[in-house]
Amino acid sequence: MDELTLDEALEDLVSAEDFLDYFGIEYDASVVHVNRLHILQRFHNYLGKTNLPSEESARRAIYVTTLQQAYQDFVKSDALTEKVFKVFRMHEPQTQFVPLTSITINKQDVA
Description:
Strand content: under 5%
Largest sheet: none
Structural class: mainly alpha
Shape: elongated
Number of strands: 0
Helix content: 55-70%
Low-confidence stretches: none
Oligomer: single chain
Number of domains: 1
Order of helices and strands: HHHHHH
Number of helices: 6
Distance between the termini: 80 Å
């Protein structure tokens, strides 16, 4: 039986535990249980900032490093502090730009 390629194997992984097990990263199940979606989103965010090489072994090494980093973020901190998802940032002060022309009354429009 042929071994799966990295891309094929990744298609079968569905949970944070699957990813951590596949890449051989030891983890505390209680940390993952509470933060699984946050860990996967942070992993995705880290990968998005990385130029992934085409060589499978180099990509695998980057996946291991970034997944380990994402997991460790939640070992050392928590979801509320890390604010991975937008819902955690919604109550922070927001800055919006409203051009003056959109709030002034044009005399021709009033008539």
